[in-house]
Design a protein that fits this description.
Order of helices and strands: EEEEEH
Strand content: 35-45%
Helix content: 10-25%
Largest sheet: 5 strands, antiparallel
Structural class: alpha+beta
Number of helices: 1
Radius of gyration: 14 Å
Number of domains: 1
Strand order of the largest sheet: 1-2-3-4-5
């Protein structure tokens, strides 16, 4: 759980190989979360359910956040 004002920072990047030989990269954050990087987007897991957030959606969310901060 993230509380207001808590900084979540990049902790590391690593890779692993899937059973079919594909290499997948992961971003590890300081709050313990890990995001898998795919060509289609970032895979996020919550409550045992993985969801891929497509790159266009991620970019749109970042642009909206930047607009709110301006």
């Amino acid at each position: 759980m993230v509380s207001d004002g808590e900084d979540i920072l990049f902790e590391g990047l690593y890779s692993a190989q899937t059973e079919d030989g594909e290499e997948v990269y992961f971003i590890r954050l300081t709050n313990g979360a890990e995001l898998a990087i795919y060509d289609d987007g970032l895979a996020v897991e919550k409550n045992g359910i993985a969801t891929i957030l497509p790159w266009p959606s991620i970019l749109s969310m970042l642009q909206e956040e930047d607009a709110l901060e301006a």
